[in-house]
Design goal:
five-stranded mixed β-sheet; 5 strands
């Protein structure tokens, strides 16, 4: 009878040693298959750009994407289309005095896999200077800021693709 108590205690200790980490790491939910996996989690979801509150202008620099030939995919992505996985990381500049532009950039960032889009807030005049010299990857601006800083001239550069969201034609 003492042997049963000893083995029972050993099994109990073993269950505690193995069970606590198992339960703290999600337990049986780790074996479920109804969550996001590597295949379904990799595609981006589309949104209706006409339902976005506000109007936005996105400038995409060709020189950063021509070797990888992803300008068309990024243009479709920022236009609201559902695109396949884009094997290209981007750096997005937003004016520091443009909260609407930052909000839209964060919406776009949420549609991408983690860490694929870095957002950096920059002074508006420095941002426009970078735009004139082509020292950027992607710039997102709200339409009121484009009008206030006369930034529509940025789209005249041959190395820039301009995407208008929410009816923001300039």
């Amino acid at each position: 009878m003492n042997i049963l108590k000893v083995w029972g205690m050993r099994i109990g200790v073993l269950l505690v040693i193995l069970g606590v980490p198992f339960l703290s790491l999600g337990g049986a939910s780790a074996f479920r298959t109804d969550g996001v996996d590597a295949v379904t989690g990799a595609s981006t979801f589309a949104f209706n750009p006409d339902e976005v509150s506000g109007e936005y202008v996105i400038y995409i620099n060709h020189t950063y994407h021509e070797k990888r030939d992803t300008v068309g995919l990024w243009t479709a992505f920022f236009s609201g289309e559902n695109v396949p996985v884009i094997m290209d990381d981007i750096s997005c500049l937003v004016a520091s005095n443009d909260p609407a532009g930052m909000e839209y950039a964060q919406i776009c960032q949420a549609r991408l896999p983690e860490n694929q889009m870095r957002i950096k807030s920059v002074n508006a005049l420095l941002l426009l200077s970078k735009a004139d010299y082509g020292a950027f990857d992607v710039i997102i601006l709200s339409k009121p800021l484009v009008d206030a800083y006369a930034a529509a001239s940025v789209s005249e550069n041959q190395y820039i693709t301009t995407v208008y969201v929410g009816g923001a034609e300039v």
